[in-house]
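Fill-in record for DUF2190 family protein.
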Amino acid sequence: MPVQGGNAINHGVAYAGMVADGEVSNGVSKVNKGTVNIAYGLGVVSDGDDGAKLPVAASTAAQFIGVVKRELNRAYTQADVFGAVAKRDMTVETMASIWVTARVAVAKDDPVYLVVGDGTGTNQGQFSNVVGAAATLAVLIPNAKWVSTAGAGALVKISLKVGG
């Protein structure tokens, strides 16, 4: 009997938090110490010796760890944000070419800024190519650049060489 449907054979070209290619990459294990899931593809900052969290208004570039890597080995309820589960371990890419969602239109070789925001919780962890203000306030990430061009809200690759 033939398959009756329900199986997609065409998947997205990329997903937020997906390592983009076969370049050398480095992932570190961190604990999401917060109470909510952190969506894949967002930038995180240090939270103690073994933790990571979304940035807050006072976060600095020196606290930036990397991008939450998309992992398929997690269990979720239907209502959960698809990402790093609260109170559990996650992989954070510190050196990689990785897919993220651009907050604004970006061009290849633009600098990468991590949105820390103003404490409202609406944009933290997103990436931009400008410093922004208020809810879109961002800090420059050294040794990171956009490696493709895309419009606001589109998936685009960034290259990180942060360490860990």
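KEY FINDING: The domain at 26-161 is CATH 2.40.300 (Virus Head Decoration Protein; Chain: A,).
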